[in-house]
Amino acid sequence: MEIQWRKSSKSSNAEDSNCLELARQGDEILMRESDNPNVVIRTTRAKLRAFLGGAKEGEFDDLA
């Protein structure tokens, strides 16, 4: 089965624009950068949910 990668609607489709892409495969969540698609990080839904919650609360704003 082919992996269906998704990216944020806030990501630009410009040629030099790169983004983080996500996909689901079984019980895992896969993440990759569009400019380096061969490197894939695997995590769980629970861990991704915890990270997104922290991001929504501004815990990583100093990194952006």
Overall description:
19% of the residues lie in helices and 36% in strands. By secondary structure, the protein is α+β, with helices and mostly antiparallel strands. The radius of gyration is 13 Å and the shape is flat. It starts with 5 loop residues before the first strand and ends in an 8-residue tail after the last helix.
Compact summary:
The protein has 64 residues and is of the alpha+beta class. Helix content is 19%, strand content 36%.
The largest sheet, given as strand count, sense and whether it forms a barrel, is: 4 strands, antiparallel
The gyration radius over C-alpha positions equals: 13 Å
Order of helix and strand elements from N to C terminus: EEEEH
Residue share in helix: 10-25%
Count every beta strand, where a strand is a DSSP E run of 2 or more residues.
Answer: 4
The global form is flat
Please give the alpha-carbon distance between the first and last residues.
35 Å
Strand order of the largest sheet: 1-2-3-4
Number of helices: 1
Q: What is the typical, i.e. mean, pLDDT?
A: 91
